[in-house]
Amino acid sequence: MLALLVGALVQTACNSQDDSSRQPSTPRSIRAMVPTTTPRNLGSFETGNAWLFGTATPTLLPTATGTPGPSPTPTVTPTPLNAETLKGQLLFRSSRPLPAAYSSTSLSNLQVFNSRLFQGVSDNGNVIWRFDPVWGKLAPCDSPPATPTPFPAGTPTPVMLFSDMSRLLQKPASECQAIYDAAITAQTWSADKRFEVYIGSDPNGGRPQVFVIDHSTHTQKMVTHFGVGVSYDAVFAPDGYHLAFISQELGQDNLYTITRDGTDLKRLTRLPGQAWTTTWEWIKRPTWSADGTQLAVWSNKVSGARQIWVLHADGTNLHSISNDPRPAEDWDPVWVR
């Protein structure tokens, strides 16, 4: 009898376990005590507390929000130095002292062993400067050299062979020098490269005169016919038809214009109202502005030092842009066009 009773209890337990395994699981109810303002009775969970049933909602941790930092400063790209960026500006040679930013700081550093390697330096050691007619500013043509990186302490001093230094000094690294040289050459040609102006000997008297050659027909024409004075420094205007040149026909240098056909000869200097001294004065190297409305030359008039003078194409409004830089001087202007 006892055996039968134990067997029945075991069977019932097994059936109950099987039934629970076959039933779908349901989420267990949870209860949590939430404090209230009612005084709590330590002897009862129901008094002074609330019962909550259901699935616990997880507490979300706060998400860190990144604080934006300062915007990076944009890198300014320097304007490239070329004939297009210098168009309309007047370049000239000068013996003016360079601003402090162009000075060399250490001759022992190969990067700055000679500050002239970074400027517009001509073969005779003079720097190319530029004048901006729009802003009326004078400045060295090339940009200041980059600040050199000093050698670490204890680094042996680099050695440069004299032959290497001599070679570098003979061929300075200057973009502006190349632009200047190209502009000098370009103004002896018409814009279409058909006509070229040059100085040749008069077949009748041997005096230097202005000639124009037409490369399309391979013919040449003597444009000037002065009797005693030499003519030189002839250049084309941007229109490819007018010329400017210097002649000593009147005993001193004077600036003239004429057409390539030899017509419309005009003298633009020593006109009434222009102040010139009675001593010998030079007028050299005429150059036309990009729009053909102005000319520039160098002259020693008034100050006695070489300075850059600008005037209208009809000879009026003659004025100096050099501001009397003595003892430094300015000369050999060329307008980039």
Major pleated sheet:
4 strands, antiparallel
- The CATH superfamily of the domain at 187-335 is known as TolB, C-terminal domain
Helical amount among residues, as a percent range? 10-25%
- CATH topology of the domain at 187-335: the name is Neuraminidase
Which quaternary structure do these chains form? single chain
What is the CATH architecture assignment of the domain at 187-335? 6 Propeller
- Unreliable stretches (pLDDT < 50, length at least 5) are 18-22, 26-54, 105-124, 167-172
Mean pLDDT across every amino acid position: 76
Coarse structural class: alpha+beta
Give the beta-strand count.
17
Our count of helices gives: 3
- Report the portion of residues in β strands: 15-25%
CA-CA gap between termini: 128 Å
Globally, the shape reads: globular
Highest-level CATH class of the domain at 187-335: Mainly Beta
The spatial strand order of the largest sheet comes to 5-4-3-17
Structural Rg: 45 Å
What order do the helices and strands follow? Answer: HEEEEEHHEEEEEEEEEEEE
